[in-house]
Write a structure and sequence with these properties.
Blueprint lengths: L1 E2 L14 E3 L12 E5 L2 E4 L6 E7 L5 E5 L3 E4 L3 E8 L4 E20 L10 E9 L4 E8 L4 E6 L2 E6 L3 E12 L5 E12 L5 E4 L20 H7 L5 E5 L1 E3 L7 E2 L6 E6 L16 E4 L8 E4 L2 E6 L2 E3 L2 E4 L3 E4 L2 E5 L2 E3 L2 E4 L3 E4 L3 E10 L2 E4 L3 E4 L4 E8 L2 E5 L3 E4 L4 E3 L2 E2 L3 E4 L3 E4 L4 E3 L2 E2 L12 E2 L10 E3 L12 E4 L11 H6 L1 E4 L9 E4 L33 E6 L5 E4 L3 E6 L4 E7 L14 H4 L1 E3 L3 H6 L1 E5 L5 E5 L6 E2 L1 E3 L12 E5 L2 E6 L3 E7 L4 E7 L2 E6 L3 E7 L2 E7 L1
């Protein structure tokens, strides 16, 4: 005899330690149970020959789950017990509903470095289907800013140490039963992220990576010091890893940026197209960059070349999660993945990148094995595979390819895309095909894909088929022009960080420039590939406006008014007093450079982006360093009138710089190219510093003096 009892979800039948199934001939009706949390022990009557527990998977399917007298139910649903008493089999049906189904966890996003000033994410992981759920968050740390969104909490901690986060979860069932549960989690917050500077051309300094003046000379020095959440900035130049080794990422969320001129304070001041930063191998047998198991790292603004390995000549990514942005990956060799190898779950986000001139047996441009990278505005061309997949080789992988060019690659078979057990997804991409319409062998057509010539300025193969250095910027009448999807450009995040003062790092949507430094969207629609089409070979720089005010008693050259300077260039002007001395106040005896204060309204530029040098006639030359924004100047010739006259003097004698100061002070000496050539603390009195012939700027506090050694 079987009796089905419909689920009543009735209030009053709450959490119970155990429930007993009674044989129905006792006429004992067992009601259904609504309870807060499992497991709930279901018991059969004793004395039976055997028991069989089943779980009702569907109306017609049952799954056997046990044969003991009792069973611990851990999930909601219908349970059936068949009891064999020898002479009769009794089947009982019972239905259970848990308010808290399965496992509930309070987790935090491990990909975000646990650092001061970094936004941390906490979230509740639980089954909420069919339940009315609310959350009440609590923090033990007072010095925070946070926002809540349902089952997620976003919090920025301002101090270091162990922090506690809690959440009270309330589940209300239709019966009126209210169940509550408190979850907690802790996180150890360390100091703000650090920034390390690398410049192979730096002269002098402490070589501790703390600033451009004290930069490391080798990238591996910074990578050895960097920890989760840290950044490395690398100035223009050619860098090679140690013999027999690769650049390896030892910690999660380390980000390495190239393309600097060794003066920048903010990442957005970087012009990577003009400051080529190359990482290459000088020996054989290793990848240039190796990522193994690390998460959240980034390489941005590099040319990666001349690697030679079994897998991943340029980049070997095994089970890592990496972002590759604004890079050129070229002239690398490997058996698998000449440019990049993504393997064993190694997923990559690659955008604004050129992959060209690489060679391999399979997957000359990129080889994916059990990996699912995402490619956005990538150009893959001029690569050569001796077997398959000149552009992409996918083995058990389903990459997402968007706004990307796959054209002009060569291989014995499948020159652009080769798939084994893979279905890559293509959308708004230009893919070279040998037939009309979509070729299903390439993968899944997600829409917007085209075939046609990108009209590269120089292809990667000459007319005889020999490989050569290509120029993959788009030419006139390119099929790729205005054919991409803008939304894909806005998805990828570009960082804006200020390392010297270790301000909070933030990300903003989209990447504003293409690989050549042009605006990423010139017209209304983004182009396909790493480069936007521009009709001129030379790309004009954007002009920035400089406003010089009129100040009584001062003469400016150029004269007051609006002036213009190209982005990234210095702007220089001079200031001197009128012959009448009308800029002086009564009783003033200090020189103009001691009194003069020039500000822009930007505290960072006012502190580090203005140089003032006293000339022999008493005038002052002012340099605004690397202008990237419009500037309106404020000039005050009396700002330091009440201060004590410094009494310092700087002059030259033969091959020595001579200084006279009244108190112990720090002195830095630069050449005309801005390189630090000497830094020391000098005592009160006169000091002599020997230097080669040349022109130098001597920096004492916020004052500069020009000295010529003849």
């Amino acid at each position: 005899m079987t009796v089905d009892i419909p689920l009543k979800d009735a209030a009053g039948h709450y959490t119970q330690d155990s429930l007993t199934f009674y044989a129905h001939w006792h006429q004992k009706i067992v009601v259904d149970t609504v309870t807060c949390e499992g497991p709930l022990r279901l018991k059969g009557m004793p004395g039976a020959k055997s028991y069989k527990w089943e779980y009702l998977v569907s109306a017609t399917e049952k799954k056997e789950i046990g044969n003991a007298q009792h069973f611990d139910a851990e999930k909601s649903g219908t349970y059936v017990l068949t009891t064999d008493y020898g002479t009769v089999n009794v089947q009982d049906t019972f239905k259970v509903l848990f308010a808290f189904e399965g496992k509930q966890e309070l987790k935090n996003n491990k990909h975000i470095p646990a650092k001061i000033g970094r936004k941390q994410e906490f979230y509740v992981k639980m089954d909420t289907v069919g339940r009315n759920v609310s959350y009440k968050w609590s923090l033990t740390e007072g010095d925070t800013t946070h926002s809540m969104k349902g089952d997620s909490l976003y919090v920025v901690f301002r101090t270091s140490g162990k922090k506690e986060v809690g959440v009270e979860i309330t589940v209300t069932l239709p019966s009126g039963l209210i169940c509550k549960k408190v979850l907690s989690a802790s996180i150890v917050i360390s100091e703000k992220y650090n920034g390390f500077f690398v410049d192979q051309h730096v002269q002098g300094g402490r070589e501790d990576g703390s600033s451009w003046a004290n930069a490391y000379r080798r990238i591996e020095q910074a990578l050895d010091k960097a920890r989760a959440g840290d950044c490395v900035w690398v100035a223009r130049g050619v860098y090679t890893p140690p013999t027999g080794k690769s650049y390896e990422m030892k910690y999660d969320s380390v980000e390495v940026y190239g393309g600097f001129g060794a003066w920048e304070s903010y990442l957005h001041e970087r012009v990577f197209a003009s400051n080529q930063t190359i990482v290459r191998r000088s020996d054989n047998g290793s990848s240039v960059i190796v990522i193994e198991g690390s998460k959240g790292m980034r390489w941005d603004g590099f040319t990666i070349e001349q690697g030679q390995a079994t897998q991943g000549g340029g980049i070997l990514n095994k089970n890592g999660q990496v972002t590759i942005a604004n890079c050129i990956i070229r002239n690398n060799r490997a058996d698998q993945g000449g440019g990049i190898y993504n393997g064993n779950g190694g997923d990559a986000v690659i955008f604004n990148t050129e992959i060209s001139g690489n060679t391999a047996t399979d997957g000359a441009g990129m080889y994916n094995h059990s990996a699912h990278p995402r490619l956005t505005n990538v150009t893959i061309s001029g690569n050569l595979a001796s077997n398959q997949g000149g552009g992409l080789y996918n083995d058990g992988s389903n990459p997402d390819v968007r706004n990307t060019i796959l054209w002009g690659n060569r291989a014995a078979k499948f020159p652009n895309v080769s798939n084994t057990g893979s279905t890559p997804m293509f959308s708004f991409s230009l893919i070279e095909k040998d037939r009309a319409g979509w070729d299903v062998a390439l993968g899944s057509d997600q829409g917007g894909n085209i075939d046609g010539s990108p009209v590269f300025r120089k292809r990667g193969f000459d007319e005889s088929g020999a490989m050569r250095e290509g120029d993959y910027r788009l030419g006139a009448n390119s099929a790729a022009e205005n054919q991409g999807l803008n939304r894909y450009v806005y998805v990828e995040k570009t960082r804006d960080a200020h390392l010297p003062t270790l301000n909070e790092s933030e990300y903003h949507s989209g990447f504003p420039y293409d690989l050549s430094g042009m605006n990423r969207i010139i017209e209304d629609r983004v182009d396909i590939g790493a480069y936007e089409y521009a009709p001129d070979i030379t790309f004009p720089k954007v002009s920035r406006e400089i406003v010089i005010p009129t100040v009584k008693g001062l003469i400016f050259q150029p004269t007051p008014g609006i002036h213009y300077v190209n982005t990234g260039d210095d702007f220089t002007f001079s200031v001197k007093e009128e012959e009448s001395g009308s800029a002086l106040k009564a009783g003033e005896k200090k020189r103009l450079i001691e009194r003069l204060k020039i500000t822009t309204g930007d505290p960072i530029r006012d502190k580090d982006g203005i140089e003032m040098t006293e000339n022999e006639d008493g005038s002052v030359t002012v340099k605004l360093i690397k202008v990237t924004e419009g500037i309106t100047l404020t000039v005050d010739p009396h700002a330091n009138s009440s201060a004590v006259v410094t009494g310092e003097k700087v002059w030259s004698y033969k091959d020595h710089v001579l200084l006279s100061v009244k108190a112990s002070t720090d002195v830095r000496i630069y050449d005309l190219e801005g390189r630090l050539v000497d830094a020391r603390k000098v005592n009160a009195g006169e000091t002599s510093i020997a230097l080669p012939q040349g022109i130098y700027l001597v920096r004492i506090a916020d004052r500069s003096y020009k000295v010529i050694l003849r």
